[in-house]
């Protein structure tokens, strides 16, 4: 089966999904149309790339590749953020099946009305692209279940944000090192809440919890972030209690930290509004942490309103207040909460995600071959 995949923006936050998509479709004839920077960061060496030249516009790139794209059995379009008109003019008129990857369901499928002209125009453009797409790919079974109830004229497929590694063996807390708790993802104070976590962690350190290390596993911009001073103050008093990064983290380094950690921690604001259309994490928008907790077989500390993948609640430790979080840190410190106790649960959850992924893959290939 000939599959063309369009990844025409340097969205490094979605690299895990691109690698997951290529792994799921391995064995098919895949050509990825993309940028030079994305090509350099893709781990799969078996993929054939068609790369935009330096200073080449997306419009010209798509126009010159229209014929080859039209010869595909299916074109998978990664959710665009900027090149809307290039896509509408060059791709939507092709007869080939077009499958749109959607990460923000409400923004693309059910936008909220607005009096602001710019947002209204973007909403109309997205609706045109959505309407002319034959099928939809989402990155979570929760999102698929939500769309299945509301969208009747398109097939909805679930391909996970991170492809489950069936050969993974948990290696947490080797050599009696500190207990490592990771908050994965780019440091973004609009999407995530840091102050209460840092405050709770400082209280725990002051209370004598000295065997836990907090790792912010995402790029922190020291010039813009309001939290770096708080981190520096904590580290000055308790050396290396918080690890953070000020540059892009290569995927192999990112993965290594996840393999060796003991717990994940989600500090997401469940209700997210960036494009004036509200999204709900776990229902209309997904966080990578839902896939990471399953793939790396880790327990995850979550806020009470966070919605993980529907069958992975049994991997979660829930907090509602800052005091709850302080108590959780204390229990983890004295091993009242042990990450290894979650291993068997996580393995079973991974089996479920693999079964669901294979089912969606087979449906996709059967419907487009």
TrEMBL record:
**SUPFAM superfamilies, from UniProt?**
UDP-Glycosyltransferase/glycogen phosphorylase
Name-wise, this protein is Glycosyltransferase
* Highest rank taxon of the organism: Bacteria
Q: What is the lineage of its organism?
A: Bacteria, Pseudomonadati, Bacteroidota, Cytophagia, Cytophagales
């Amino acid at each position: 089966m000939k599959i063309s995949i369009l990844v025409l923006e340097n969205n490094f936050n979605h690299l895990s999904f691109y690698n997951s998509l290529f792994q799921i479709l391995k064995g098919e004839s895949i050509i990825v149309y993309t940028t030079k920077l994305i090509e350099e960061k893709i781990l799969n060496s078996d993929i054939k790339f068609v790369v935009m030249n330096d200073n080449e516009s997306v419009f010209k790139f798509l126009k010159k590749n229209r014929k080859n794209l039209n010869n595909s059995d299916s074109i998978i379009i990664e959710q665009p953020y900027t090149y809307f008109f290039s896509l509408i003019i060059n791709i939507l008129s092709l007869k080939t099946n077009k499958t749109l990857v959607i990460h923000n369901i409400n923004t693309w499928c059910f936008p909220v009305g607005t009096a602001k002209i710019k947002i209204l125009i973007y909403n109309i453009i997205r609706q045109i692209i959505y309407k002319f797409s034959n099928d939809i790919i989402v990155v979570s079974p929760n999102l698929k279940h939500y769309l299945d109830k509301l969208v009747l004229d398109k097939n909805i497929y679930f391909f996970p944000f991170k492809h489950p590694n069936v050969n993974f063996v948990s290696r947490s807390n080797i050599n009696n090192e500190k207990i490592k708790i990771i908050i994965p993802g780019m440091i973004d104070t609009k999407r995530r809440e840091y102050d209460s976590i840092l405050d709770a962690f400082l209280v725990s350190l002051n209370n004598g919890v000295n065997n836990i290390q907090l790792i912010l596993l995402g790029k922190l911009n020291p010039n813009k972030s309001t939290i770096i001073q708080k981190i520096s103050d904590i580290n000055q008093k308790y050396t290396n209690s918080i690890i953070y990064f000020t540059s892009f983290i290569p995927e192999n380094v990112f993965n290594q930290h996840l393999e060796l950690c003991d717990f994940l921690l989600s500090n997401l604001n469940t209700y997210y509004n960036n494009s004036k259309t509200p999204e709900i994490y776990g229902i209309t928008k997904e966080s990578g942490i839902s896939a990471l907790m399953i793939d790396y077989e880790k327990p995850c500390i979550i806020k009470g309103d966070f919605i993980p993948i529907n069958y992975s609640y049994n991997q979660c430790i829930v907090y509602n207040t800052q005091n709850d979080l302080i108590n959780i840190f204390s229990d983890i410190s004295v091993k009242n909460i042990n990450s290894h106790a979650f291993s068997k649960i996580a393995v079973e959850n991974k089996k479920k995600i693999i079964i669901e992924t294979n089912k969606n893959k087979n449906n996709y290939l059967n419907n487009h071959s």
